[in-house]
Design brief:
Blueprint: E1 3-7, E2 10-13, E3 18-25, E4 34-39, E5 45-51, E6 59-60, E7 68-73, E8 78-83, E9 92-97, E10 110-115
Parallel strand pairs: 2-10
Antiparallel strand pairs: 1-3, 3-8, 4-5, 4-9, 5-6, 7-8, 9-10
Length: about 120
């Protein structure tokens, strides 16, 4: 059974930082491109970042470029997203997905709330 479990969200003030983690099981993590998507209340899903198997070709949405950093640890079957210089508009539920486009299997998500 494919499982993804996100964690690391929380409430921070503008300019703060968080590190999200996504622990996976049920598939060969190292063979999969992975991504992070987010959904703000009342809005659609937005793919914010993605990374190929092997850690190459990172993608960042323009809205997060220069502030977020995606990485992966294949030995731990874990995907990360470092969130720096957070803005109120980053407030959303964040999900990891097991493909490059954010359309794969996802977990329950972790909430990020940024206040001014």
């Amino acid at each position: 059974e494919v499982q993804l479990e996100e964690s690391g969200g929380g409430a921070v003030q503008t300019g703060g930082s968080l590190r999200l983690s996504c622990v996976t099981s049920g598939f060969t993590f190292s063979n999969y491109a992975m991504s992070w998507v987010r959904q703000a209340l009342g809005k659609g899903l937005e793919r914010v970042s993605a990374i190929n198997s092997g850690g190459s070709s990172p993608y960042y949405a323009n809205s997060v470029k220069g502030r977020f950093t995606i990485s992966r640890d294949d030995a731990k079957n874990t995907l990360y997203l470092q969130l720096d210089s957070l803005k109120t508009e980053d407030t959303a539920m964040y999900y990891c997905a097991n493909n490059y486009w954010g359309t794969g299997a996802r977990g329950q998500g972790t909430q990020v709330t940024v206040s001014s």
